[in-house]
Amino acid sequence: MLEDITEKVQFEQEKQKLERQLLQAQKMEAVGTLAGGIAHDFNNMLSVIIGYVELLKDKFPKESFVLADLAEIEKAALRSRDTTRQLLAFSRQQAIALKAINLIDHIGKLEKTLGRLIGEDIDLLVRTEKDLWEINFDPSQVDQILINLAVNARDAMLNGGKVTIEAENVVLDEEYCLIHHEAIPGEYVLLMVSDNGSGMDTETLSHAFEPFFTTKKIGKGTGLGLATVFGIIKQNEGLIDVYSEPGQGTTFKIYIPKTMAGAEPKEKEKGSLDDSVTGTVLLVEDDKMVREMTQKMLENMGYNVLVAENPTAALSLCEKSAVLINLLLTDVIMPDMNGAELRDRIIALCPEIKVLFMSGYTATIISRHGVLDNGLKFIQKPFSKKELAQKVADALWDR
Predict the structure, then answer these.
(1) Are both 59 and 115 inside the same structural domain?
(2) Number of domains within the chain
(3) Over the stretch 48-92, which tens digit does the pLDDT of each residue have?
């Protein structure tokens, strides 16, 4: 007897592939839930640490030995902040600000930084198609992708080598999408990062995007780099493929949907912060430590600050204040009333007031409360004094 089992084998292979994809999705979901759960409190505490370190640094002369100790505290806090952001990135809950960008310009600006990052013994080549389509992406996330992939490539080439970054326009057809089930037919910008390093075997390749998986020695890697890239690409409805063989190097192919929007209007030129430090800020924050630290930061910049520990107190201040309030700086998620509801109530009392939201929660949770939409002003905790100064100035000057 003869039996053709080709279809059965193909079906079993397809089933195993889908099971692996489901398992990966479940892992990402589990870590995302954990990351989202701890992000708010963790980011609040980091805001306090970073904020007070910056305020302390301003109180000591430049030659003080205390500054070196403060710099170490700040370095540890910033590393913790970056780790939290990586957790949120690969769990697809990072707060993002999309804009139409051209990768030719963006890669060009980042090229020197990448060159310094990978070292002089590694050649960096950049090739981009002349008439590259624009993509709708957060510029800081493009940086995250390229930096993570460049660092990965560098670590795979201990004796030097070559990293190539390429970008070109591609059209994915029905045939391609039948093989790659997550793909949707259409026009994409293909970003490729290749190296001629040690490469990966099949087993390593199957775990490449898993969070905390690393082949590096203890203390040399967190296992978050490729997981971060994976999360960013999925968050932006793109695709990522990796091709690698031991001793033959690695190539990452990232497909990013072409933006359908027209060219963005030119950004308004930002004035100097010194010119914009004026006015009264109504600060609404239910966490006492964050509230006091943010108040000190704002007063240190030169703003007059009114403080409210909850939305009810904020509304009362607006009704009774004899001073014109220029800016509402409010947390997003608070007891009794969220930031978006408070904004609507306060605008009814003070129609000319500007609004800046802040939160340590993830993008998913913030979006449910009406923030991150329609170009609203937002700052993610933890933030530095410099970041807060710029965001407040931008909100006040509507830029």
Answers:
(1) no
(2) 3
(3) 898 899 889 888 888 888 899 998 998 888 877 776 766 665 555
- pLDDT tens by residue, 220-268: 555 567 877 887 887 778 888 888 888 888 999 999 998 875 444 444 4
Q: What pTM value is reported for the model? A: 0.53
Please report, as a single letter, which amino acid is at residue 268. K
What residues make up the domain containing 376?
A: 273-396
In this structure, the answer to whether residues 81 and 103 fall within a common structural domain is no
Quick check: is 243 in a domain?
yes
